[in-house]
Amino acid sequence: MQILTPAAIPSHIAIIMDGNRRWASQRGLPRAIGHASGARRVRQIVEACSERGVSHLTLFAFSTENWQRPADEVSSLMSLLVNYLQKEICNMHTNGVRLKIVGDLSRFDQRLQNLMASGQALTSNNSKISLTIAANYGGRWDIVQAVKAWQATNPAVNLSSLDEAGLRPHLSMGHAPDPDLLIRTGGESRISNFLLWQMAYTELFFTDKLWPDFSVALLDEALHWYSARDRRFGASSVHAQRAK
Ligand code: IPE
Ligand code: IPE
Ligand code: MG
């Protein structure tokens, strides 16, 4: 495969890591094993993105709707999140990863909240890659919480003065540019309430591969696919403008 120039690499990749339960059921394994296998993929993909010069990576780990799953599955997902953070925070710090966790974290137990806070504090000055994990995150929740946060910081200002630029810093992803590329594994072609505001002009790459089988080779395939997109943002094509 042709080597991509740094300019062709997306600054921000978002990933919907989907398909863990189907991966497990295809093998006659419990769902929790599918989730654990999915979690083991994460380190390699963070490292590969970092090596390729991606500056922001955002992973959808748990949606606001995922609480509707059976209690034992939710609890195994929570344990995995705790284990993942316990195991990976030191490694992230060594590798220059800045960790950020977005979502309504108040619903998580105190131990998990403390772990999230300490991981973010420890890695806050790192700059090789910014890794955002979306946990108890929903795009609709994000927009509503941002409006409330805007109102709280501008109590004397009428809501009619709110505009896009004013709202943006209050959204959960205020620390990152909008994603250039979304990758969704697992064969579904939908957004499932992920970064609704931020993905207005994101290029969407869907693959049938289930998340535990996602590989660096497939990441590279997505990057090559992305490099051939003509991003117009509603304006004229860059190529058409050059041809003028
Ligand atoms: C993604 O895999 C992980 C989470 C949503 C937490 P799923 O658990 O959705 O697995 P499938 O899509 O049902 O196979
Ligand atoms: C999206 O996957 C959420 C995460 C990967 C965390 P889901 O499996 O929850 O989405 P749907 O139900 O297929 O839309
Ligand atoms: Mg799913």
Automatic annotation (TrEMBL):
Substrate binds at residues 19-23, 31, 35, 63-65, 67, 69, 184, 190-192. Keywords: Magnesium, Metal-binding, Transferase. The keyword Transferase applies. InterPro entries: UPP_synth-like, UPP_synth-like_CS, UPP_synth-like_sf. GO terms for molecular function: ditrans,polycis-undecaprenyl-diphosphate synthase [(2E,6E)-farnesyl-diphosphate specific] activity; magnesium ion binding. The active site is at residues 18, 66. Binds 2 magnesium ions per subunit. Mg(2+) binds at residues 18, 203. Transmembrane segments: none annotated. One of its GO terms (cellular component) is cytosol. One of its GO terms (biological process) is polyprenol biosynthetic process. NCBIfam families: uppS (TIGR00055). Catalyzes the condensation of isopentenyl diphosphate (IPP) with allylic pyrophosphates generating different type of terpenoids. This is Isoprenyl transferase. It comes from Comamonas aquatica. The lineage of its organism: Bacteria, Pseudomonadati, Pseudomonadota, Betaproteobacteria, Burkholderiales.
